[in-house]
Design goal:
Blueprint lengths: L11 E4 L13 H13 L5 E3 L11 H15 L5 E5 L4 H14 L3 E4 L9 H12 L5 E6 L1 H4 L5 H10 L3 E6 L5 H10 L4 E4 L5 H7 L3 E4 L6 H12 L3 H15 L7 H11 L16 H16 L5
Parallel strand pairs: 1-8, 2-3, 3-4, 4-5, 5-6, 6-7, 7-8
Helix pairs in contact: 1-2, 2-3, 3-4, 6-7, 8-9, 9-10, 11-12
Length: about 300
């Protein structure tokens, strides 16, 4: 199915893609294209680029646009590319949104400013110009844990009422009651996505229709199967797979989730653990503990 710029189905597992780096820490576009296609081949519904997991804050504006163009070309209209839009300034966020549309992206995931958290009046004034900068379908990313800005269900409903192309929410507050509250306020007006890996089954049972996932970068088949079991109400199958997956999924909620997920990719032969400073690759006991968790899970990997 071809995807055009204004048409995106917000549903299923959409990976928050990591950004692959070469040994000199330049962006590895060949690896990015290969990774995106592999994710699609293993059951994913699209990709989100330039999010927190994609180390967006370490990327220059031109690098961001180049990554989007690479992914759009790699997926060639067969699946949507969603651009994460985050910036220190509203003006730059608007500029990036327009550049994403020009690059052929199918949607936007709109974040609050990186470091400036404030009240609803200022945050709404930041979000609206970004959402209205293009005709692309938009997802609001609510992550008060990381960004110190919490978009309450009532505020999200207000934003949706004023902006028809706001069509989805990535809810990463780690409070499953937010899904219930948004469903009560908005019904099916907004597609609700779980944004925390170790809450996916609970979130889907509360009414979420998709998952912006992290560990999917290393385990796409398991991620797609888990989400599908949960969405189909296959409780026993979902719970069994979830039990195996949870030690890995909890890495997505850790402070060094980028390093952990990239290490998982490296361990399964689907990427490198290289990260850009100020992040450093894991070392010592911290790294060994992560590898122990990964190797224990791989030793008991379910056959799907």
């Amino acid at each position: 199915m071809n995807v055009n710029k204004s048409d995106i189905k917000w549903q299923g597992v959409i990976p928050a893609m990591t950004t692959e780096f070469k040994p000199d820490l330049g962006v590895d576009h060949v690896a990015a294209a290969r990774h995106a296609r592999w994710l699609m081949d293993n059951g994913c519904a699209g990709v989100v680029a330039l999010g927190s997991l994609g180390e967006s804050a370490t990327l220059r504006f031109d690098e961001k646009v180049a990554i989007l163009k690479t992914l759009v070309a790699a997926l060639d209209g067969q699946a949507p590319v969603v651009a994460g839009i985050a910036s220190l300034s509203t003006a730059e966020a608007v500029e990036l949104a327009k550049a994403a549309a020009d690059a052929g992206c199918s949607g936007l995931m709109v974040l609050p400013p990186y470091v400036y958290s404030s009240d609803w009046r200022e945050m709404k004034a930041h979000l609206q110009p970004v959402i209205r900068a293009t005709k692309l379908s938009c997802m609001l990313y609510n992550n008060p844990v990381s960004y110190k800005t919490d978009f309450l269900p009532e505020q999200i409903a207000e934003l949706a009422e004023d902006n028809p192309n706001l069509q989805a929410v990535k809810e990463s507050s780690a409070d499953v009651r937010r899904v219930t509250a948004l469903k009560a306020l908005c019904g099916d007006r907004l597609a609700l996505f779980v944004g925390v890996d170790d809450l996916v089954v609970e979130g889907v049972r509360a009414g979420a229709v998709g998952w912006i996932a992290g560990l999917v970068n290393a385990f796409p088949r398991e991620s797609a199967a888990l989400c599908n079991h949960a969405m189909r109400g296959e409780r026993i199958k979902a719970d069994e797979l979830y039990k195996w997956f949870l030690p890995l999924l909890r890495m997505d909620a850790a402070h060094k989730f980028v390093q952990l997920i990239k290490l998982a990719q490296q361990e399964v032969g689907r990427g490198s653990e290289r990260v850009r400073p100020p992040r450093l690759t894991l070392a010592g006991a911290e790294r060994m503990a992560a590898l122990d968790t990964l190797r224990a899970a791989l030793a008991n990997r379910p056959k799907l």
